Amino acid sequence: MQEILYLHGFLSSPQSHKATQVKDYFAKYHPDVTLYFPTLPNVPSKVSEYLLQYVKRNVKSAPQGLKVIGSSMGGFLATWLVEKFGGKAVLINPAVKPFELLQDYLGEHLNPYSQEKFTLTQEDITFLRQLDTPTVSEPDRYRVMLQTGDETLDYKQAEAKYRHSLLVVEEGGDHSFQGFENHLDEIAGFLMPPA
């Protein structure tokens, strides 16, 4: 049984454009694959426990390793999970050091998808730092997709961290990763190589 976990980014949700594209693609071309789209807590300090419980309850193949697609903060979390459980991950404009980036976001926020209000605290930043994996144990477990025009994250951080992984670096674009749908065949092929 093939299972894929999709992890959205900060201030996003399973209703995001990329998540919808993933759902539609797999429904059409790989209907036998079970997809999971957890709604991650907005507050970072709750994310790791939530994800561990979610994987334990839902993803039957977790003991053999995960297959994960992670966007932005979801890419940071996907790396943490793959380093913990094994498996493979496709990372789209992943956050490498969200604990540094989010220093500028302390305070109140509103998730535009769920309309949930929450407060980002220093405790959340500290918690994210504890999930950091400064290096990856097996670089070939990762396919990393970057666009140099990312206005939110410095793509060079991910390019350096995952330099020994399968890197796809496109000029221009933005943080949402323009043309993402054109890469779904390659994403499926990487996560589920033909036997």
Automatic annotation (TrEMBL):
<dbReference type="InterPro" id="IPR029058">
    <property type="entry name" value="AB_hydrolase_fold"/>
</dbReference>
<dbReference type="InterPro" id="IPR008886">
    <property type="entry name" value="UPF0227/Esterase_YqiA"/>
</dbReference>
<protein>
    <submittedName>
        <fullName>Esterase YqiA</fullName>
    </submittedName>
</protein>
<dbReference type="Pfam" id="PF05728">
    <property type="entry name" value="UPF0227"/>
</dbReference>
